Amino acid sequence: MQRRLAACLLLCVPLLANAAALDELKLLSELPVSGVSGGNLSGLAWCDGALWAVSDRDDQQLYRLESDESQWQATAETFVAPPAPDVRLPWGLRMRSWVAGLVRGGELDFEGLSCDAAGNRYLLSEAKAAVLQLPVVGEPNWLKLPQGQVRQARASGMLLHYNSLLEGIAVDPAGERLYLAAERMRRGLLVVHKQRSTWRCTGGCVLFSEAGTEPAPAQLGEKEQPRDFSGLSFHNEKLFTLERQAHRICRRSLGNGQVERCWSFAAEALTPERRYPPSYGLAEALWVDQGGAWIGVDNGRFSRADGESRPIIWRFAAPKGGWGSRP
Predict the structure, then answer these.
(1) Could you tell me which of 309, 247, 302, 296 has the C-alpha nearest to residue 55?
(2) Which stretch is the leader sequence (predicted)?
(3) How far apart are CA 174 and CA 151, in angstroms?
């Protein structure tokens, strides 16, 4: 028994050390975004040579972003989404999302954005637990995802609570693998594969799910917070999760979603002038590429300590050795 305990401790020591002292990402630029409704920036993606954003308050547009030295300027591209599919969410969840959409705007509650190499865009609706495709050619359409996806997610303890449903989306360059992130209580990752023209769960839709809490960064007093995902990105055959409460980006395995390495952005995000009145994290959008990571801050209508009231996009440099580097 003692030998087993000693072996377990030896295996756990590197993981604990990594969690306690993550490498900090270097901030390259910080620009506010003008022209996004109410400051609600919920998704980012680099498509067709430009950065695009989506807001959870807009059901009929996404934004192409162009920057100068002072800001990102958002230009709206409009679309008309057909009626969303019924994925068999419980009546109570559907009604609460419907009422929230009436009160604050954004009945579809778009919480994520991704694109494939061909330029097709994919918008994740949290309220409908569904994915809207904006194809390069043709009209917007909802992907016909497997009926068992939501059922499997709920059986694993995910998608049970209002405003804690799907929060991140990532698609591979070929547009044949689609990954979704469940936000919290429990958080987890789902995957579906495209076979010809049909999306299927190959070996199950759920990669993994987990509950529990973990401490916030030292700048926030290390108060325990629920584990969460607020953004998801696919890069170089790995998944990258934006973990809002912990103020970090983690690289995860495509096969089982297990964490391989994490990097913190707390040192830059939590400087005194960048603090917001809410004590929880506001980083909502993530796009990872070879050169670094784009992180979008959904500030709602809050102003931060320096008076900036627009949403913010940070550009962080890739870690030394690249995103595939070992601890």
Answers:
(1) 296
(2) 1-19
(3) 27
- Write down how long the chain is: 327
Cβ partners under 8 Å of residue 196, min gap 6: none
Taken in order 53, 54, 56, 58, the sign of the CA dihedral is positive
pLDDT band at 64 (very low <50, low <70, confident <90, very high): very high
Ordered alpha helix ranges (H), the chain? 2-20, 91-104, 148-155, 266-269
Nearest to residue 323, comparing CAs of 223, 213, 255, 237? 237
Give the predicted TM-score (pTM) of the model: 0.92
Sign for the CA dihedral angle at 268, 269, 274, 279 comes to negative
The C-alpha angle with vertex 208 and arms to 264 and 90, in degrees rounded to 5, equals 110
CA angle 80, 81, 82 (to 5 degrees): 115
Are the beta carbons of 116 and 173 closer than 8 angstroms?
yes
Residue 217 carries which DSSP code? Answer: P
- CATH no. for 21-317: 2.120.10
pLDDT tens string 262-278: 999 999 999 999 999 88
Do residues 280 and 251 make contact, with C-beta atoms less than 8 angstroms apart? Answer: no
Tokens 């497997």, located at residue = 146
